[in-house]
Amino acid sequence: MVKDILFVSFESLPFIKTGGLADVVYALPKAIDNKKFKVKIVLPLLKKIKDKYIYDLKPAGHIYINTHYIHEEANILSYTNEGIEYLFIENDTFFYRDGVYGYDDDAARFSFFNLAIIEMMFNLNYFPDIIHCHDYHSGVLAALCKLRFNNVPQINKIKHIYTIHNLAFQGIYDKNVLFDLLGFSYLDYANGSLRYNNDTNFMKIALEFSDVITTVSNTYAQEIKTKEYGEGLDSLLRGRSNDLCGVINGIDTLSFNPKNDSNLITNYDLRNFVSGKKKCKKDLQQTLGLNINPDIFVLGIVSRLTNQKGIDLILKELKHILQMDIQLVVLGTGESIYENSFKEMEYNHKGKAVYYCGYNEALAHKIYAGIDMLLMPSQFEPCGISQLISQRYGTLPLVRETGGLKDTVNPFNKYEKTGDGFSFNHYSSYNFKQVLDIAYNLYYQDTQTWRKLIKNAMKKDVSFSSSARDYENIYNWVLNR
Questions:
Q1: Structural fold of domain 3-250+465-479
Q2: Which residues contact 331 (CB under 8 A, 6 or more apart)?
Q3: What is the pTM of this model?
């Protein structure tokens, strides 16, 4: 018998994206066996989605949310994309805004979203076997089901899976959010299950009430149980070790495929990647105003510019990097200190280094194809998407051995001449520089081995196929508990 799975997220491709969460919520359901599990996805109808898709969405229902401070109506709209039904919660008060996150009333916006999903289930008479929530924006849904609506048999039978995409973002708010917005009783706060210090924490609530907790790599699942990476929740995660597992992310290999990527000036695969990547490098150089040289070693960064991503290590060694026979391409936005440093870099090294301040999907594809090495020396990284994309395009990643980076990059072994990237362990600019120098010398001195590593990277299965099988096993496990 086919089981119903409801994915709950605040973002998903092809509709809205701020980070890797959108990639996962989009790609994973398509890879799950639809003969065993029927997946639906529910999202808020954010402004960018509504403006583009409103005439394609079909009415499905209408609901009303009534708590102490929230008195709002919402429409439920439906849209099918690539065989997956998306349900949208339409409420302009909370969702019709230019941005996705970062508003003063985010606690109310996320609370409304969680409550609306409960009412949606009643309105549509749709009670899935499993609700699979993603990140803190949907963190209180399991608690609502188990504390406020547990007297409803259809809701009481639902199993709850919660996926941590990044433990650093938790949704910490004033405790009154629980009572005024979500309608919980004070007793549930007093016993500690909804309390975090003297506040409330949506992530912590999800970890308390979900039946199974997953995160996006095996290594990260172990790291977050330590004080160093646990972001204040390590003791809770250690206590739930038997219910916690890591499942490595993949990428949508149809969208990211150098063989038929329309963003590239020429397509390539394992048979012709040498000539293909050279042509893509030349096109990238022309596009960004770099000196034309298809043989030079080109480094790239496609990233949020934050301390988490190891940008400080790169900047500490930037003088050394720019003295090498290289070109450097940077795409991304983030902390002003990093943006300004890369702007200054471009100003002082025209033709050798370039910084694109912003995000451009087509340009990102050109960068993955046109560079030789992706720099991703993250301080921590739950999984990471960029290193998987770069491998798909025959670009070798240089990463720090943390989280999903450790799980997805096999480091170069100079004795056996194996691997599909480069890595270092201890978080320091010295270790980063050492590994970069090894890669630089290999590129110029041993072309045969460099091309062998590219082949290794391009042969890897970076799709969601393996992850989907793991999740199917988790779904069966939680249903049979």
A1: Rossmann fold (3.40.50)
A2: 300, 301, 302, 303, 356, 358, 359, 360, 363, 364, 367
A3: 0.92
